[in-house]
Design goal:
alpha+beta, 6-stranded antiparallel β-sheet, 15 helices, flat
Amino acid sequence: MARVVKVFRTLRNHWKKSTFAVCVLSYGGYWLNGKHRDNVLRREACLVAKEFGRQQIAPQEQLKKATVILNPAACGGKANNLFEKNAAPILHLAGIEVTIVKTDYEGQAKKLLELMEQTDMLIVAGGDGTLQEVITGLLRRPDQETISNTPIGFIPLGSRNSLSPSLHLLSDNKVKNITSATLSILKGETVPLDVLQIKGEKDQPVFAVMGLRWGVFRDVAATISKYWYLGPLKTHAAHWFSTLREWPLVRDVSVSYTAPSLRPPDLPPQKLPRPNLMSRIARRLRNYWNPPVEEPPKVEEPEEWKEQKLSTLELFIQTHNQNPVEKRINDSLMICAEADDFTMGEFITVGNKKEEDPTVFTRNSTKLEASACRLQLPEGAGGFFNIDNEEYDALPVEVRLLPRKLRFFISAERREQLLSQLQ
């Protein structure tokens, strides 16, 4: 008992050192517990991948080939380490022949995709910028009609991963997000996604899976990092300072658009059985004596464009890829224009919400559905677009929807969750 009293007396007499030691030990215990949980997640994922690797294949069947486009600079330079520790072991244990291609500079992924050979699956390991470059390089190829049938997997390694919530169940644990995304590639379940083709007057087209953003809220969001020293108040401060520099912040834009097209039914590709020999001979003889009459080619009707002038704080042209399993009547893109009658307080409040989710719009916003649209900006407008969170100069562009152009791997759990939200 005397020894216990002596220990407590020592702790009381050296309370500063005792407090510091408790803080260090608490943080160390929390850190070790996090490392242990990450190792458990990796082990469980590797055990699942090992079962895929044990599956037998036919003697003439070859191993599946996967080409990985990895951006080591993503996530502040941590992407390479994250991929090697969490995703690469799963792919190797599953018996997949993996080819890893690392990018060295911005824009290189577009050039690499032009030289990529045929592969069974394409895996993008990075963030929004890497994904946007890969899609653009893929759809600029001369054989894009064929190569676009290659299923694409997305492993979220970037600081921004806008497409990931549409494909995977997300959590606060980055290791869990990476391993679950990699396992969804092994399971092979895919979903078609729409793509936006964005073309200027001179440049080659750029492609996006989420959307194009232009306006004041986008410009303010690009400056928020400058106010890092204000901590949680930096978003409020960035919007408030922008109102001091200029108010009102309304932008004028002319939007021309065409009506959305009807969505054809989702029918699984079925291969009809080959007719027997006698039926094939009879058909050939019938076609020989009575050749079928060739139908004249259908004359495509010219597109009907409607023009609307908008005054708005922000314009967002987006796909419906937030819920890719939703059954829709039309194939369309969404043109969302924010209202122009905000007070300063409302501007700051809405700006904070848009920092968390840029697709949030107020009730008074204008929303149009279209299959294609043209943006005509006023002279000297300047500024920048955000195309899948990548910055481009704001110029007059034509945005056209490519419905169900690419197929991405999706987790079965996320598909079921999205379907349940529609009920």
